[in-house]
Input
Amino acid sequence: MSKIEFLQFENLEIKVERKSHRRSVTILLAPKKPIIVRAGLKTPPSFILSFIKSKQSWIEKNLENFKKIESQFPEKKIKEAEVFPFRGHERQLRVVITPGKKYFVSLVESHLLLHVPINEWNALSKQLEYENQLHALRDFYKREAMSYLSERIAYWAREMSLFPSAVKFREQKKRWGSCSARKIINLNWKLILFSDELTDYVLIHELAHLQHLDHSADFWNLVQRYCPNYKKQNQALKNTQALTDFLNE
Output
């Protein structure tokens, strides 16, 4: 059994998700989403408010960080002249007509093109926001990522003489890559948004795990051999990870 209710704490509205089997109380925070507290069905509201009070400084610190992230990485709209990141460069979106029946996105020189089917084209097409075409944008990035990342990891595998048993592409929320004991490397396709240098660091990092399945000194020495400024790239990745949020469904 579950139940949803709302509580007010100072100037914050708290969404409370209750479930019969839950015994603990937890808080979930995320950019552009409500504050969520998960608790049991019988947990008194007074206890929940007291728990929130004990976490107030932590909540306020995170909400302030979220504001900074939103100002640094403003919301993207799928419309004419909007700018989107691609391989570390900003690409302006242009809305064009296509004789086909499906929406799709392509890359031409320094621009992204949103192709609008001719049977849906009208005088206002270049002024509209195509918020329901996120899937077309995601498909474009996935397609480009699988092609580019496959090429680059093959290059670095040869350079490092370290060859994975397989390379797979996933959409991971908090990881850009991983390597299993079976020598399978998983790559987050959203890496295609970042600069080539930063992407190469992630590929080198994961390939190095084929030799050292840990983060020992030997592992980092191997990474540094092929990516001397790996510390700078690692920090850049942490600082810009919100760059890809506009592609979240």
Summary: The helical segments are 45-54, 56-72, 134-160, 196-208, 217-226, 230-239. The mean pLDDT is 93. The domain at 141-247 is CATH 3.30.2010.10 (Zincin-like). The longest helix spans residues 134-160.
